[in-house]
């Protein structure tokens, strides 16, 4: 496997960062998880725009321009002869000393890994997931905006561990107000009486690229869609529920906290959105 690392394409065995890198010491960095479908980097420009916003928010100067990032991302895929897969683009604060001071870090480090991804097994797309609400709350936006896709994922990881302890593959995380924020690595949507609802970023959701795609699809299909504060109760009593993410795509949820959602099987709106999403993954984006 070939990895892009700070301007060079190196063998995976040589793709190493320093133990003094603040991405490792403090989680001081940002990333994107991007999908490649049949040689199409899905919504690459939107991912890079989010990366640029994340960089701005943490006062990090990206070492490459938008055009250079596109080229480096595509070239990493090409060098690995990859047509389908998962791209992890990471920018760290770089090497510094043992103090926090990011201004003492000489230069940011940027690496791109193009590989494969472990997907949810097909049965979950056919039958839906049973998930739980976990005790760990989503981090307060006043402490660290969840809109920044940072290397600080401990909050989500605690949620993921609690999901696993409860025997679930994903979990709903509430914000400190008790409203649904998102899942540990996915955005959450419900369908109620014909309208699609999802929490706003202000409630603690990442502005997911897949989430944005769902808004576009809903508008194209003429399905009403809105951002809305949601409680656990709203999800329990929804007609349908589904999660979105670059990894999960659009995956139905049929149970939350032991309550059966709707008919207990993936609903018609979820089916339509997933079908349309699968049409778009090879059409929207940047071709290698
Ligand atoms: N919320 C969080 C906290 C995430 O980490 C999403 C929502 C969905 O955003 P996108 O832009 O992907 O629609 C994410 C993204 C994986 C995996 O391996 C997870 C993500 C992305 C890619 C792969 O589970 N999370």
State the main characteristics:
D-amino Acid Aminotransferase, Chain A, domain 1; 8 helices; binds 3-[O-phosphonopyridoxyl]--amino-benzoic acid; 28% helix; 2 domains; D-amino Acid Aminotransferase, Chain A, domain 2; seven-stranded antiparallel β-sheet; 16 strands; nine-stranded mixed β-sheet; alpha+beta; 288 residues
Strand content: 25-35%
Bound ligand species: 3-[O-phosphonopyridoxyl]--amino-benzoic acid
Q: Overall pLDDT, averaged?
A: 97
Structure class: alpha+beta
Under CATH at level 1, the class of the largest domain stands as Alpha Beta
What does this structure look like?
With 288 residues, the chain is α+β, with helices and mostly antiparallel strands. The protein has helices at residues 22-26, 44-57, 66-79, 122-127, 154-165, 209-221, 232-236, 268-280; strands spanning 2-5, 8-11, 29-37, 40-42, 85-92, 109-115, 129-133, 171-174, 180-183, 187-192, 195-198, 225-227, 240-245, 249-256, 259-260, 285-287. It has two domains: 2-115, Aminotransferase class 4, branched-chain amino acid transferase, N-terminal domain (D-amino Acid Aminotransferase, Chain A, domain 1, 2-Layer Sandwich), CATH 3.30.470; 122-281, Alpha-Beta Barrel (D-amino Acid Aminotransferase, Chain A, domain 2). The chain is built from eight helices and 16 strands. The strands form two sheets. Strands 7, 8, 9, 10, 11, 12, 13, 14 and 15 form a nine-stranded mixed sheet that branches. A seven-stranded antiparallel sheet has the order 2-1-6-5-3-4-16. It is globular. The chain binds 3-[O-phosphonopyridoxyl]--amino-benzoic acid.
